[in-house]
Amino acid sequence: QFYTRRGLLPQPAKTESxxxxxxxxxxxxxxxxxxxxxxxxxxxxxxxELEHAxxxxxxxxxxxxxxxxxxxxxxxxxxxxxxxVTRGYDHAHLxxxxxxxxxxxxxxxxxxxxxxxxxxECFDAFVIRNETLVQPRVEQTVDLGERLLYRLTGNxxxxxxxxxxxxxxxxxxxxxxxxxxxxxxxxxxxxxxxxAEELADLRPAASSAPIVPxxxxxxxxxxxxxxxxxxxxxxxxxxxxxxxxAHLWLFLAVQAAMSGEIEMDPRMxxxxxxxxxxxxxxxxxxxSFDVQGCEGIHGRILHAATVEFVARGYxxxxxxxxxxxxxxxxxxxxAHFPSKARLLAECFNASVKWxxxxxxxxxxxxxxxxxxxxxxxxxxxxMQALGADVMAFVRVEGMREExxxxxxxxxxxxxxxSRFVRDLAAMRSQTSSPPAVADELIAFSLLxxxxxxxxxxxxxxxxxxxxxxxxxLWLFLAVQAAMxxxxxxxxxxxxxxxxxxxxxxxxxxxxxLFGDS
Length: 517
Fold this sequence. Notes:
The protein is an all-alpha fold. Helices cover about 70% and strands about 0% of the residues. A two-stranded antiparallel ribbon has the order 1-2. Helix 12 runs antiparallel to helix 13 and helix 16 crosses helix 19.
């Protein structure tokens, strides 16, 4: 400050809080001042000696305040990621993040409005960092299967962001008007865009306009992986290798369809009318729906709660409104359901059973696999009526290994998938060799693909429900062709066995993501 006041040093930049920021130029000038002082020069002589150097520094267009802001921002983001990964969103403490980042609470809140804002920006930063780590390996090969597998290391590593943090991120996709949407959409676009561009390049030059949008196909693939990952942690039936193989199998079927090996246009055309019918079908859960298998007080509470969750979502639903509608006291309510979360899990299970009782007779009337699939999607649409936060909560609680809600959720998902698996198995060619991937994982993939593409509808009006249904039907028909032996995926998969083994056995933790930082 002494030298600054006398003009021997340039004025420092300042942060919003008034903190002075000194650059490397200040350090070099201070060293030079020390050398000149040692030679016996006066302050005035030193000022004359350094005049040109000081003028040069003053003309610098380096924005130290912005640079310092970004440095602190990144430090907080890294501390946030580590806290969310370790504890999950609900149990993460801002006090711990602030302490580990080495900043003050005031400085933290100049960067982030709160924990939710930090979470979505952590997700975005996580995706950017992961992309930086994976991209060199992706660029080393032109084989799309290999490129997919390298990118999947990011999907697997992202599981470490804790499932409840993932739930908050997915919810922010659906909250119109929320200022948290931008980083979430940015992160998803970084994940989706490269794959969508590669898929678009597969199309023959003379092909007609695509039947379904590339973006929805890639979103479907992303959701497919999330759904199979959820299934893998229920028990030890499937491991990381099974997930990679199932996703690669699905991708290769998509690749064959995009490149024209499977002629999709006439197959899709057969279902135009049915797609429009399903898209305009009233898929709301009516207030008069019948809770399957639950009588008396338990059934009344489930019925009232489902209506409340549909109307208000999970966060907005009130136990007091549910007890009033069901005609029970809080004491009776908690004797049946120890928590609101447990109530939601059982409501979801009851809704799935009710939905199946409606849909399965309709599905049984046809043997056409595509029509059966579309009829099932009517049921999926009805479950989406439960609300985005309900569906996100259900999915996340189905993933959390320690969750006491897993049993009813597994039962619900299992009842949906079991019927679908039988249809898939029936499509296999009689002469085909043993399946390279489990039918159950294929079924989960298609269900997850639908959830992910449905979630895209609420970002903007770029796509409608017909686009989502057409995309899922397109994926299903590609899967059908692969299972019936029209394309030989077994031999194609065998080319990637070594790489699958390598990635399945890799260290894919957050520590490995930041290991070189």
